[in-house]
Fold this sequence. Notes:
The structure holds 2 protein chains of 2 kinds.
Chain A: E1 5-13, E2 22-27, E3 30-35, E4 47-51, E5 54-58, H1 66-80
Antiparallel strand pairs in A: 1-2, 1-4, 2-3, 4-5
Chain B: H1 10-23, E1 28-34, H2 35-43, E2 54-61, H3 63-66, H4 69-79, E3 84-88, H5 102-107, E4 112-114, H6 118-127, E5 132-139, H7 144-156, E6 162-169, H8 171-180, E7 188-192, H9 193-199, H10 205-211, E8 215-218, H11 222-237, E9 243-245, H12 257-266, E10 267-274, E11 278-287, H13 296-299, H14 315-319, H15 351-357
Helix pairs in contact in B: 1-11, 2-15, 6-7, 7-12
Amino acid sequence: MCLAVPGRLVEIMDRGDAAFRAGKVDFGGIRKEINLAYVPEAEIGKYVLVHVGFAISVIDEDEAQRVFKYLEELGGFQEELGEIPQ
Amino acid sequence: MKFLSEYRDQKAADQLAQAIRKKATRPWTIMEVCGGQTHTIVKSGLEDLLPHDITLVHGPGCPVCVTPLELIDKAVAIAHRPEVIFCSFGDMLRVPGSTKSLFDAKAEGADVRIVYSPLDALKLARTNSERQVVFFAVGFETTAPANAMAAWQADHDHIENFSLLVSHVLVPPAMEALLSSDNCVVQGFLAAGHVCTIMGYEEYFPIADKHKVPIVVTGFEPLDILDGILMTVRQLEEGRHEVENQYARATRREGNRPAQERIIEVFEVVNRQWRGLGEIPASGFQLRGRFQKYDANRRYPFSGEPARESPECISGLILQGIKKPHQCPAFAVKCTPENPLGAPMVSSEGACAAYYHYGRRQANDRIQPELSGFPSR
Lengths: 86, 377
């Protein structure tokens, strides 16, 4: 129920009141009109997280890499110790 | 898809599982709060990647599962009114009330429609001015800004033939209730990432502090969940009980302020009944002030019989993590997704349905971990 899916914002439509601000979001080729009222900072080209027709967050692309950076460090550390990561 | 498929990488999952195995020296019991997380865990077989000492228990975070039977009965009664177009998210349709589900009502001729967004229901009200459109506003904090916006836009545009049957519940009071129970087995929590995307996670600090439990805000993909478990186990092993954020790509400490402001404008906090758990103080939302004219509860007074749960269903124990689905005598025998006795068997996010669908019918059933083929949901 709390499922939210990331998609790329490709177009912003100004509809007067901020509550009606909307945009087109591309989900791997499928485009849907999404309400942008809750992400005033969203810019075209950025990824937004969408739940039931509303963008609820702009994806932080640096933070998105955190787990992979950690795993890289972990892999390097294990190699130093002569352990091969599974 | 970007920011989705990379979090389903099998090799990275194996590395994280190995890191958890290295860190865990004792048995630990961790609850994932959200039904979406339960679904990922069971579907991708994550429990079988973990050391046997780590037990995951599946929390009450499925709004479909905790919606009281009475409210389903009320929804069915409203849907049967000839002037009503009754709109709902798809997963509420099959939930059985005392005698029937919304799906049964639809089969009997009621105008029941599945919508993707509450704004789709509002659009139906705009284009069907001779009908009454009622939206079943079910959900946790994640869905509250969307439902609040539907009421706000209806008010802004003076749309009279629209109302909301609200069944909104809040996660922190349920966590507090679980932790305060004498039977509590939970030593650490994976908090629901998208709930915190909206509300932030400051309200978890007093809970972590009071009950001395680590709480890690966690995402929904297999790597997110393994990473969240690793962070929780690290805290447990080191004797810490802090609030940490695994899901920082989508969730900030303060949450989404514009969404919170709209929620507060439209909703007020009330006591709510949770199916399987009973009444929890200050654990839900209802429409406030000028938005109460959109409350379907007020518009359609209901005088049905008090609903009675199946005496065989142990969903309360399942939702508290005290019993696993396969420990219920009715599980997969009298209670199946086709004929559910209780709500956790109905929603795909319910623990019982997830266990049933993905082959965990008995205690010793194992699921071959399979992440790479994990499809987009």
